[in-house]
Amino acid sequence: MAKREKYGPDVELATDDEMEMILENFEVEDDEEEDEGAFTALDEDQIESIVGTAIDEAVAFIADEIADRRIKSQRYFNGEVDIGEEEGRSTIVATKCRDTVRAVKPSIQRVFMTSERPVEFIPSGPEDVASMEQASIYAAAKFRQNNGYQILRDVTHDALVSITGFTKAYWAEYDSPKVYDFTDLDEAQYQAIEASPGAEIVRVEQRPDEETIRVMQEQVDQAQAMAQQAQAAGQQVDPSQIPQMPAELPQLYDVRVIRRNPAGKLCIDTIPPEDFFVDRNARGDNEFYIIGHRTEMRAADVIAMGIDEDKVMDLDNGSTVDMRDQEEEERRRYPIQRDEDENAEDPSMKKVMVTEAYMRVDVDGTGMPVLHKFLMGGTANRLLSYEPVDDHPFAGWHVDPEPHTYFGRSLVEIIERDQDTATAITRGIIDNVMLTNNPRTEAVKGQVEMDDLLNNEIGAVVRVNQPGMLRELTVPFVAGQTLPALQYIDQMVEMKTGVTRASMGLDPDAMQSTTRAAVTATVSAAAGQVEVMVSNLAYTGMRRLFQQILKLMAKHSTKAEMLRINGTYVPMDPRVWDTELDATINVGLGTGREEQKTAMLGQVMQIQMQAIQAYGPANPLAGIAQYRNTLADMLSINGISNVDRYFLPMQPAQPQQPPPGGEQQPPQSDPAQAMVAAEQIKANAKLQSDAQRMQLEFMKAQMQDDRERDRMLQDLEIAMAQISAKYGMAIDTAQIKAEQAATQAMTQAMMQPQQQPMQPQQGMPNGAPM
């Protein structure tokens, strides 16, 4: 027994054995064990449980709260409504939702696709300006290489109809196989190919080398004949020295070899909305608990990803009917056929459900959760693999986002009730027209031949026992009074969506009763809603997608690429770019912006040309390169991207070599002289602009005068016809028209000096562009 120790006059400490007994009786845990249990590493079972539970909750949220909304919107887009139908009455549907979406999509596509660089990266300093300009061009080129038009078309449609569109940008690694065929290889060559690293022999055809065997046989026969001659001459011949044919004869090989070279590429996919999921508390693409998507894959494709074959073959395909199937069937407009025994004879083609989820989990027990990619299989969410990642590959595209939540509203949701109302009014109008044109008939029972009455043949006879036995139940035509209500619904839809007849392509100049400025203002105001939709799509999905493109290419590129910029091929290496820079949107929003930009660039071009003519191409204000950039921008705004077809590409300026015998001193420029030159150029530009404005006003006044004169002539003709018909008097119209022509000629002669072309200003030679 351990010895007790005294602690003071009357206190004794317990021994170690006694303390152990006390701890066991009272179930007291050691403090060290409590401290070690704060953060611990997770095993695969714990990870599977945590991630699987989060996936189930997120999928349940989508099925309970979002799927029904998307299904209803898809139904309304397909031309269905929730209001009932009466047998024998009109069943027409006013397809407001589909018509509005189809009208908006071209405007959105035009805004994005006419911009050479939809997204521009903002440099952090002056030294990054050139590299970020290259990065913007590079990202736009990669977007177009991945069929950017189709991506925009799909995500825009999903956002307009199904609340949100989704893209997935990722780097796909694959083997690029090359097949080589070799014939007539000898043994040494065949062994060299077989030992070559990376070479996979898929076919070998072996045959005897008849030519070599024939030569060997001749040599053996010749040696044996010489040995026989030596023996006949009495010479001693060692039989072991006489050559013999080998047991294994030489062979030739025909070989087919596959060499698989590892490669990779940037991939951008559009994800069906029903395959995407996110937790109910998510607020955006960067604020979420879990985010991911699930889909069905072939077993062979999953095994090719490095997943164990036994795990893959045990997975199910989620064939039970759920909301995902209902959404897909509504979008396809035909049922999905599922067969459990579809690939019973070929298990490699079996469909299995695979879920790719991204979630922050403290896997290593460090107390700092890290974003991981989890690959789960089947409806039971079996853990297949996981790895830490920098970011998730998804981007959500929204047309009407709601603050502080992930899902906003679709365009179809905004006008669903308007479609119901317009459908009800339209059905009432058609029913009224049908009843007015085909009224019901009142007939006295037993006094009318019903077969004759039911015969709708034109001119058919209806036999009655006596007159007055038939009477039409006349229905008054009131559809005309209902049309204003239908027009009101159309106006409400236009106000909500911004899709009006003016914004759908009506030329402002065609409206004679309204000024061009007023019509342009009307069109611009109507396009405000469309501008907001384009801005939301650009600042949500497009911006994030381009940032993902730049990050993926900077991470996985192995060499620089040659891209064409302003007609010159420039090497671009995304590995040296800063991928954490911010991105801004550069799309042409608004109606009439192209005209305004073209007019502004025209004024810039005039100033540039004046500076070049006055001070030469090497002036400090603008040179030939800047002049060509202006022309290129004008063509690009009008949809012409091939600038080199019209203007030669600019080569980079080469430094001038100093003349022999001394160094060339750079000319010193006078700041005061440069300021005077700039002010003179501005004054000349203002004079030209004022002259052009005056000439334009004169042309407008002349056109107005012509219209008034034509109207007066028409009024004159009508008045003369009325006077002639009423009083029988003949009026000399020729004299009246001659007097009008003389007045018009005098007016033109007075205004003729104002139409003379402007004389070139001092310092600007004749022939300079205005």
Commentary on this structure:
With 770 residues, the chain is an alpha+beta fold. Helices cover 46% and strands 16% of the residues. It has 21 helices and 17 strands. The protein has helices at residues 16-26, 31-36, 44-77, 96-113, 129-145, 148-161, 187-194, 210-232, 299-304, 309-313, 323-332, 411-414, 416-437, 450-454, 479-497, 516-526, 528-556, 593-615, 624-637, 671-727, 733-751, and strands at residues 5-6, 12-13, 119-121, 164-185, 199-208, 251-271, 276-278, 290-298, 351-361, 370-377, 382-388, 394-398, 440-443, 470-473, 561-565, 568-572, 583-585. The strands form six sheets. Strands 7-8-9-10-11 form a five-stranded antiparallel sheet. A four-stranded antiparallel sheet has the order 5-6-4-12, with helices on both faces. Strands 1-2 form a two-stranded antiparallel sheet. Helix 3 (44-77) runs parallel beside helix 11 (323-332) and helix 13 runs antiparallel to helix 15. The longest helix has 57 residues, at 671-727.
